Amino acid sequence: MAFGLRLVAGQLEALREGADALVVRVEDWDVPVPTDYQEEVAAAAVVECLRENCGIDGVGIGLTFDRERNRYEFTWGGAAAKPGLGDPEVRDQRVDR
């Protein structure tokens, strides 16, 4: 989830309205078991939730399935990045839907 927050950190700054901090609280995160969980799903969920509920533009999230590796591959604002591999180098951008 922290990865998703970092993706839109610049957009969240605008929501502070002069406050010293902006707190994002996740009250429930339900992952059905058994599942082939991928961390990127949490990042995408956070970005989309903030987009829908807080009015930020979000980032373009691309998704493809790699059959050979049996996992989904995500792109964030056109850049490939993965949670846990440092800060994403993704510019905040408007997403038209």
Short characterization:
Helix content is 28%, strand content 12%. With 97 residues, the protein is an alpha+beta fold. Strands 1-2 form a two-stranded antiparallel sheet.
Question: What's the helix and strand layout?
Answer:
Layout: H1 2-7, H2 9-13, H3 39-54, E1 61-66, E2 71-76
Antiparallel strand pairs: 1-2
Task: Tell me what the structure shows.
The protein is an alpha+beta fold. It has a domain at 2-29 and 38-76. It is built from three helices and two strands. The protein has helices at 2-7, 9-13, 39-54, and strands at 61-66, 71-76. It has a two-stranded antiparallel ribbon. A hairpin with a 4-residue loop joins strand 1 (61-66) and strand 2. It starts with a helix and ends in a 21-residue tail after the last strand.
Core attributes:
12% strand, disordered C terminus, globular, alpha+beta, two-stranded antiparallel sheet, 2 strands, 97 residues
How would you classify the quaternary structure?
Answer: single chain
Our Rg estimate from Cα atoms comes to 14 Å
Summed up, the helix count is: 3
Number of strands: 2
How do the strands of the widest beta sheet line up side by side?
1-2
Estimated share of beta-strand residues = 5-15%
**Average pLDDT value?**
79
Separation of termini? Answer: 22 Å
Q: What's the helix-strand series?
A: HHHEE
Low-confidence runs of at least 5 consecutive residues: 90-97
Classification by helices and strands: alpha+beta
Which bin fits the share of residues in helices?
A: 25-40%
